[in-house]
């Protein structure tokens, strides 16, 4: 099933703070979706352009795919590139994704979350917020730890943390140009630089502080991850630390987990690589999702059992 059999739609929704968030979805045409997939994009990125390949490929494979631009990202409202609270980002994603998953027509569909880079951190925090809600996660180069090459030294971090309280939106964090180190293909780098919805330049102080805080917190709590997951990482990644993805795979409490690494590939596996490399990565992602969608759903079975138990208790009470 190709992109001609995929329907694309856009919509704005209000978050709990009254801010407009941009949302989009890719739907398979003339086919009941196999499952729901919810996308979490990376830092400074957005859904409709940089996640378009992902949405189209997954919908073309029969999945219903939903994306949302975080506050301060893409077409959503807020200061571009500014993350005042990572907790707000996670809450916004939880609220929007669950509003889709809880629709009557979707209640019996499996639900997966898929995140790239910072979006991988969002996905893991969505799971922590509702441990039994998600049926699985696809984590592409997840931000479980920022690579040492991308981090300022500790003295600089201490100074920046103090300045964050005074000038949180200023763009003075000394880092490499993430576009040059994250995206292997020059044509993709050019597209990102020309995409007005992608944030360019140095990270804002509070944003950098929140990214560092969250990555350190996630790194320390990897053993708490308990949902089925597939983690993917390029072996030449200079943005997020592949060794921490290995620790995630080894230490997570999940009984159903898989890790794939890709020699020679960079950070952005699903957007920034050569087409033939992206084909390999999506083959692995779709095979994993197909396997999960095909072989039952313990969450749905448990919910149905609980529903039957409640119905049985109600019936027994009425007879008495």
UniProtKB/TrEMBL annotation:
Matches recorded under Pfam families: Hydrolase_4 (PF12146)
Coiled coil (residue ranges): none
Spans through the membrane: none
Record-annotated Serine aminopeptidase S33 domain positions: 31-270
Region annotation Disordered: where it falls in the sequence: 299-320
PANTHER family: PHOSPHOLIPASE-RELATED (PTHR11614)
Protein name per UniProt: Serine aminopeptidase S33 domain-containing protein
Originating species: Kalanchoe fedtschenkoi
High-level lineage: Eukaryota, Viridiplantae, Streptophyta, Embryophyta, Tracheophyta
